[in-house]
Amino acid sequence: MNKRIAGLFLAALVLTADQGSKYWVLHGAHLTDGHVLVLLPVLNFVLVWNHGITFGMFAGAGAKVLLATVASVVILSLLVWLWRSKNWLTSLAAGAIAGGAVGNVADRLHYGAVVDFIQAHIGGWSWYVFNVGDAAIVCGVAALMLESLFQRPPVAPNGAQR
């Protein structure tokens, strides 16, 4: 399998897992706003409608179309990056990010908000509520950051580093 197909496959896998988990939360688990399903001492499912973007920012009226348009441009850019990538990690990371972003755009267009439901916490400290697509986006960005930190500088034909 080449890296382009692998990146696109991962994007489709993330999108399927994201939308499937959201469907289950809305129609199978029957979580209602504010109801908490305790899974582990450090993990809950709780339904939150995110009308904004990261951490609920920019949640004002009329933001839905603007946010979906900006996200769509980002998704197209990620797919171009995935297609032009010279290595596997970049292709997979771009695919993970694109798949998560498509899932969130689909929510925004279908529901007017993104469905978030995973809450990690320790004692009284709680991380923000997120979804499978958000987790894929964070993992993809982390992979790209690590790749850039450990990337070797290119070597010139005469053996000198550029």
TrEMBL record:
Enzyme class: hydrolase
Predominant location: membrane
Keywords: Aspartyl protease, Cell membrane, Hydrolase, Lipoprotein, Membrane, Protease, Transmembrane, Transmembrane helix
Active site location: 116, 134
Catalytic activity from the UniProt record: Release of signal peptides from bacterial membrane prolipoproteins. Hydrolyzes -Xaa-Yaa-Zaa-|-(S,diacylglyceryl)Cys-, in which Xaa is hydrophobic (preferably Leu), and Yaa (Ala or Ser) and Zaa (Gly or Ala) have small, neutral side chains
Alphabetical list of InterPro entries matching this protein: Peptidase_A8 (IPR001872)
Superkingdom of this protein's organism: Bacteria
Database matches in Pfam families: Peptidase_A8
PANTHER family on file: LIPOPROTEIN SIGNAL PEPTIDASE
Descriptive protein name: Lipoprotein signal peptidase
Organism: Acidocella aquatica
Lineage of origin: Bacteria, Pseudomonadati, Pseudomonadota, Alphaproteobacteria, Acetobacterales
Gene behind the chain: lspA
